[in-house]
Amino acid sequence: MNPAFQHTGWWYEYFSGDSLQISAVNEPLTLEAGEYRLYSDEKLGLPWWLTATETFVAKEDFPFVLFPNPTNGNFTIHFKNSMKNLTVEIYSISGQLVSTYKDITTLNTAEIPFDGSPGIYFVKVSDGQRAVVRKLVVQ
Question: In which domain, by residue range, is 93 found?
Answer without folding.
Answer: 59-138
